[in-house]
Amino acid sequence: MVGGESIVVPSVQELAKEKRTRVPERYVRTDLEEPPFVTSGGDSHPQLPFIDMERLTSTDFMDAEREKLHQVCKEWGFFQLINHGVDTSLVEKIKKEFKDFFDLPPEEKNKYQQLPGEHEGMGQLFVMSEEQKLDWADMLVLITRPIHLRKPHLFPKLPIPFRDALDAYSFELQKLVLKLLDCMAKALKIDPNYMKSLFEDGRQDMRMSYYPPCPQPDKVIGLSKTLRCYRNYDPPRSK
Predict the structure, then answer these.
(1) What range(s) does the Non-haem dioxygenase N-terminal domain occupy (predicted)?
(2) Which residues pair with 209 in a beta bridge?
(3) Facing residues of 141 across strands?
(4) What single string gives the DSSP state of each residue in 93-146?
(5) Domain 12-18+90-183+190-228 has CATH 2.60.120.330
(6) Contact (CB, 8 A) for 55 and 199
(7) Residue 235: is the preceding peptide bond cis (ω within 30°)?
(8) Which of 61, 102, 175, 214 could form a disulfide with 55 if both were Cys (CB 3.0 to 4.6 A apart)?
(9) What are phi and psi of 187, to 5 degrees?
(10) Structure letter (DSSP) for residue 168
(11) pTM for this structure?
């Protein structure tokens, strides 16, 4: 299997509704390690780097923020983007539609279940065998851009409010990514048009994850190491 293809697995959301006191053995992870997060003082939360989009486009702060972007990309490889310019009402709308989708009855969500040999749809990614350990999460994975790559049995069949919000949101993310790539190109001192030509028609996937309550949260994981490297778009957050 390649590209995230996976075998069909049970719905974790439905398992959680059974009010178990212990999680099924297939979800128990004994290989978990403490993440090497950087912390500040007594704060147990990770101090992740952030980039301010407003500063990147401001005459007064552009150079300093561009240099910060350059260093963060070299040293971390990822960051949180703040003041991104995506309309707050759209962000809240897509969050609501995500939740409403996962609140649908199982028989409705099953219409979007992964097909054998495919990575898109409801399920989990990179599950290769019946013995493999599973994440404590349900996922919906969709190709959102370019439009001609959308699977006709998935994206067009979504509930209309969800589909319309996802279409608008993915379009805004595409514009935002191109702006960010332009800034990266300038930080690298390469032609922004060359950078744009590499990514303008690139594929955009979205993974929407649902993490239900767990009776033994210290025994499970919601996002495996393999998936942390998978292409993903979460709703951007304002500062």
Answers:
(1) 48-156
(2) 139
(3) 121, 207
(4) HHHHHHHHHHTS-HHHHGGGBPPTT---EEE-SS--STTS---S-EEEEEEEES
(5) yes
(6) no
(7) no
(8) 61
(9) -65, -35
(10) H
(11) 0.80
Structure tokens that stand for 79 in this block: 């960051």
C-alpha 59/C-alpha 62 separation (Å) is 6
- Long-range contact list for 86-91, CB < 8 A, 24+ apart? 86/169, 86/172, 86/173, 86/176, 86/236, 87/172, 88/238, 90/165, 90/168, 90/169, 90/172, 91/169, 91/235, 91/236, 91/237, 91/238
According to DSSP, residue 43 is labeled B
- Phi, psi angle pair for 197, to nearest 5°: -65, -25
The pLDDT tens digits for 208-226 are: 999 999 999 989 988 776 5
b/e code 164-196 from CB counts within 10 Å (16+ = b): ebbeebbebbbebbeebbbbbbbbeeeeeeebe
Q: How far is CA 223 from the centre of its chain?
A: 10
Would you tell me the crossing angle of helices 160-188 and 88-102 to the nearest 10 degrees?
130
Taking each helix axis from N to C end, the angle separating 192-199 and 160-188, rounded to the nearest 10 degrees, works out to 150
Give the three-class secondary structure for 52: strand
Return the C-alpha torsion angle 75, 78, 79, 83, nearest 10.
130
